[in-house]
Each structure stands twice: as C-alpha cells, then as structure tokens.
Amino acid sequence: MPISKKEFKKGHPVTDAEKTMLNFLKRNPDKAYAARELVEALGYVLGEDLLGDFVTMTAVNEILKTLIKEKAVVKRHIGFTDYYMVKS
C-alpha cells in the first residue's frame, strides 16, 4: 500500500491516533493539556480498568513523544505536571 509524501519524509506511517491527537490540539491552540486530560478529551474513560488505563496512557505518551520529535507539539513541565500544546 502506498504511503504519503509526509509519511515518507518522516520515515514511518502517520497513525490514526497521531492524527486524532494532533487535530484535537490544533482545534484548541490556546490551551495546553496534561496527557490524562488529552485522553479524557478524546473520549476515553479512565479509572475503570487499571491495566487498560496503563496501556492507554503508555500509548498516549509515546504518541506525544513522536509529535514532539516531529516539532508538531511542545511540552512544558509546570508544577508537577507535563503539559502539551500544538506548536504555533
């Protein structure tokens, strides 16, 4: 299956999860979110399944690392929390 030029330049396919998270942040450019807030804003329910929560949060953190590496998202540590915002 062919990949896009953007995916070719990045060296890996763009996942649906990356697109979803980045699009959410682009629609909310004046706000920064903690990883947990992003998960909940995207419609996931946390607190019902410990293993499921762990898997979800691990995946979200990996996606955020990728988006930071690609310079699409910026991270800032404020207080005891890491916040993420679309790069303007």
CATH superfamily: Winged helix-like DNA-binding domain superfamily/Winged helix DNA-binding domain
How many structural units, i.e. domains? 1
Total strands: 3
CATH class reads Mainly Alpha
Output the helix-strand order.
HHEHHEE
Approximate shape: globular
Helices and strands: which structural class?
alpha+beta
3D structure, described in words:
The chain is α+β, with helices and mostly antiparallel strands and 88 residues long. The protein has a single domain, classed as Orthogonal Bundle (Arc Repressor Mutant, subunit A). It is built from four helices and three strands, in the order H-H-E-H-H-E-E. Strands 1-3-2 form a three-stranded antiparallel sheet. Helix 2 packs across helix 4.
Précis, in short:
This protein is 51% helix and 16% strand.
How is this fold's topology laid out?
Blueprint: H1 5-10, H2 16-27, E1 33-34, H3 35-41, H4 50-69, E2 73-78, E3 81-86
Antiparallel strand pairs: 1-3, 2-3
Helix pairs in contact: 2-4
Keywords, separated by commas or semicolons:
4 helices; globular; 51% helix; alpha+beta; Arc Repressor Mutant, subunit A; 3 strands; single chain; 3-stranded antiparallel β-sheet; 88 residues
